[in-house]
Write a structure and sequence with these properties.
This is DinB family protein. By secondary structure, this protein is mainly α. It has a single domain, classed as Up-down Bundle (Four Helix Bundle (Hemerythrin (Met), subunit A)). The chain has 7 helices and 2 strands, in the order ααααααββα. The protein has a two-stranded antiparallel sheet. α2 runs antiparallel to α5. The longest helix has 23 residues. The protein is globular.
Length: 176
């Protein structure tokens, strides 16, 4: 297995620190590959009754939380690719609520979202493994913040861990 090390705190905006700290290993590829199995299997084991559950009026459903994890991975993987290839044009921010509102996720079966997670994560891993150490340290601007490609890889992993914890703590999904 290849290795992508945890980024330095100077490689991303401090708002993303909790995501980077949530990663249980210093090998980002190991974290992403582990999530491919553990997060996917954990979600597959959840009963059908949980997928439309919202812990509070106006909050996302469990399906929408998974969709948010997916949307974030799509966006941050694209950013990492652009920065790694040396493209310097700043990228705008993305409104997560608009992405969810436009996604029609209440009409998608959970199996479809889980399938997307598996394919997206595998594709992200292939791309991340192809990046040279120099490419991983190239910087770019997104949402008016500076990031290295490596930092974006870390944020993807930490963001997924964060939302898994939210699903347990706020939505009451079983932590097994």
């Amino acid at each position: 297995m290849s290795m992508i090390a945890r980024p330095e705190v100077t490689e991303y905006h401090q708002a993303y620190q909790p995501y980077v700290e949530a990663i249980p290993t210093d090998n980002l590829l190991e974290a992403l590959e582990s999530q491919l199995v553990t997060l996917g299997e954990w979600l597959q084991k959840q009963p059908a009754s949980v997928w439309d559950h919202r812990y509070e009026e106006g909050k996302w459903s469990v399906k929408e939380v998974l969709a948010h994890i997916l949307d974030t991975e799509w966006v941050f993987t694209y950013r990492a690719l652009r920065f790694a290839r040396g493209l310097k044009e700043p990228l705008p921010g993305v409104d997560q609520d608009e992405l969810i509102a436009g996604g029609n996720f209440d009409q998608r079966p959970p199996a479809s979202l889980l399938e997307e997670f598996g394919h997206l994560r595998r594709a992200s891993l292939v791309m991340f493994k192809s990046l040279t150490p120099e490419a991983l340290l190239r910087e770019g601007t997104a949402s008016d913040c500076q990031f290295t490609s490596r930092a974006l890889v870390a944020i993807i992993a930490g963001h997924a861990w964060h939302h898994r914890n939210v699903l347990v703590e706020r939505y009451g999904l079983q932590n097994a």
